[in-house]
Amino acid sequence: MAEIEIRALRKTFDGAEVLKGVDLTIQDGEFISLVGPSGCGKSTLLRVIAGLEPQSSGEVRIDGVSADGIRPSARNLAMVFQSYALYPHLSVFDNIAVPLRMKRLSALERTPFLGRLMPGRRRAERVIRDDVERVAEQLEISPLLKRKPGQLSGGQRQRVAVGRAIVRQPRAFLFDEPLSNLDAKLRVHMRAEIAQLHRQLKTTFIYVTHDQAEAMTMSGRIAVMIGGELIQVGTPSAIYEEPCDIRVAEFVGTPKINAFPGRIRSDGRLEMLGHVLHVATPAPAGGCRVCVRPERIELGSHGPFSGTVVHLENLGSEAFVHIGGAGTDTPVVARVNDPSQLPAIGASAGYGFAPAAVRAFDADGKRIVTSIPSRVERPREVAVV
Ligand SMILES: Nc1ncnc2c1ncn2[C@@H]1O[C@H](COP(=O)(O)OP(=O)(O)OP(=O)(O)O)[C@@H](O)[C@H]1O
């Protein structure tokens, strides 16, 4: 088990800064996901923690000790890659046994013929066999131990890769997009397995993914990285409900949050698409973005906003209505819980939202504080819904 501290970490490749001063403390036993768009530096951060890549400046501390100068193998962190990185010519058993043989057998004991004659080899192999069988049982891959990776499905290969990581009993697991090669259904299944594994092992998990749904469903905390910086770290619900930056709001959530062009008036009220909202802010007057999640958009002929239905996404259990020509660059998306109630494409659609659904961001994309003023004070104010 390990607490991992990352302090002012910078990494430059050929003059391009990929990590721009990352600070993060990962608690012992925590499951944290690093999410962000492709190229934001997630894998680089993981590789620096693992010791596979040296940082340009800053520090990684593992259990209070600087990892500088400590070889990857001596850090005792297990990495699970997207590509599984299994040895194709070795059986599942031997793939899982590799790290144990590296640790417990000397170079001479590992040689194929001479090694067998060494006195300690047989005893060490018995212990290794027990460990591999225990892990195989835990991951329900015991019947596969004799097979080669080429004879396994993607999900089974992933389990073998996880088995090879677990068997070493590392201080922490570093996962680099481990489910990306699996089909959608299996990915959902494996998410549950990895979360269950974390509950069982109670070891620190650092999980890199560009799939925000994966991060939301598995981890205790999410760290959102954009352009080499950590923008926000928090629980999945805090990241989803209270994003501190419009880039976080737009990255997390499917479909994407609706962002309307807006304005902060000199009296502190927010205005959008010609309506004054029942939302106030102490932020200075100027341009802003008014954001509302699709599930908080309420369709109804009463408006006060309106447009034309341009697209429908019916997923069976829920549906999304895309409303174009509503004064926004891209169609406004509203979730409908009952797909039997969908409007027709081309129909006009009114919509609104409750003042509490508004998340507003200033011209620099930073979240601005908003409140809902008392209606008694401003009786003639235009309500949103
Ligand atoms: N060895 C390297 N040499 C030069 N540039 C690199 C190297 N490794 C990564 N980069 C660059 O650093 C940036 C961050 O890469 P990184 O792999 O960390 O991103 P990522 O967020 O993990 O992306 P993805 O989700 O696509 O895997 C990218 O622009 C990438 O091209």
Automatic annotation (TrEMBL):
Source species, domain of life: Bacteria
Record membrane topology: Peripheral membrane protein
Record PROSITE patterns: ABC_TRANSPORTER_1, ABC_TRANSPORTER_2
Main location: membrane
Residue intervals of the ABC transporter domain: 4-252
Similarity section: Belongs to the ABC transporter superfamily.
PANTHER family: MALTODEXTRIN IMPORT ATP-BINDING PROTEIN MSMX, OSMOPROTECTIVE COMPOUNDS UPTAKE ATP-BINDING PROTEIN GGTA
Protein's recorded name: Glycerol-3-phosphate ABC transporter ATP-binding protein
Source taxonomy: Bacteria, Pseudomonadati, Pseudomonadota, Alphaproteobacteria, Hyphomicrobiales
